[in-house]
Design a protein that fits this description.
Elements lengths: L8 H12 L12 E7 L5 E7 L1 H42 L3 E5 L4 E3 L9 E6 L3 E2 L4 E3 L4 E10 L5 E8 L2 E9 L3 E10 L4 E6 L5 E3 L6 E6 L2
Antiparallel strand pairs: 1-2, 3-5, 3-14, 4-13, 6-7, 7-12, 8-11, 8-14, 9-10, 9-12
């Protein structure tokens, strides 16, 4: 009596998986067939031969197409990333650092307190940090640095420009008057430039954008 084999979807996938894992290695069959031992519903040993010629072609085409597409995509992405990095480097090489910031609110200053100018109007090169008031030089060169500070009503204000740990030129204001300093400095990358209050008690800086700090690379 002829015996008919029936396979569920998952059983058929299992058969294919066994073939992919090389189960048929060493079996005496040609490359276009795979030999799978089976049991029918009456537990009688059977052998099923599957013709894999078309499957081999489909899988080979799929794998080749997938590998080719993946390789092309990766090469394209690498090329785009490289061009982007080169363009960014060219922009940075031609970039002329400059910054300008002002202070929005008035404040009574502590001894040796570094002044902060929280409203940033310009920050090419991202050298100025408004939270600390420090300009970190991003490129060697000759810089123009400027600062204006206004004192509050009835108060004095003594300040100096600092380069790293060295005091430079100073400015002074009293009773709503402004003190301004302008200087040209030879600076190196990572130098720290900032405005510091001198050692005087009970002095205040006026806000409202009347006090400012700026600088830019000349050459």
């Amino acid at each position: 009596m002829a015996k008919f084999l029936t396979f569920s979807y998952f059983e058929f996938l299992s058969i294919l998986l066994i073939w992919f894992l090389g189960y048929s290695a060493g079996n005496d069959v040609d490359n276009s067939t795979v030999q799978i031992p089976l049991l029918d519903i009456q537990h009688v040993p059977l052998v099923a031969l599957f013709d894999t010629t078309n499957l081999n072609k489909v899988l080979t085409t799929y794998i080749n197409d997938t590998v080719e597409k993946t390789t092309k995509d990766k090469i394209s992405n690498m090329k785009n990333d490289l061009l982007k990095d080169i363009n960014n480097d060219l922009v940075r090489a031609d970039e002329r650092p400059a910054f300008s910031a002002s202070r929005t609110s008035s404040k009574t200053l502590g001894l040796n307190e570094v002044l902060t100018f929280d409203k940033v109007w310009l920050n090419i090169g991202n050298g100025y940090e408004p939270s600390t008031g420090v300009f970190t030089v991003p490129k060697d060169g000759i810089y123009f640095i400027s600062n204006t500070v206004m004192s509050t009503k009835g108060k004095f204000l003594h300040c100096h420009l600092w380069k790293n740990n060295e005091s430079n030129v100073g400015s002074f204001g009293t009773d709503y008057s402004s003190g301004t300093l302008n200087t040209v400095m030879a600076l190196r990358i990572r130098d720290k430039i900032y405005i510091k209050h001198d050692v005087y008690n009970n002095e205040s800086i006026y806000g409202g954008h009347w006090s400012m700090f700026s600088g830019f690379l000349i050459n």
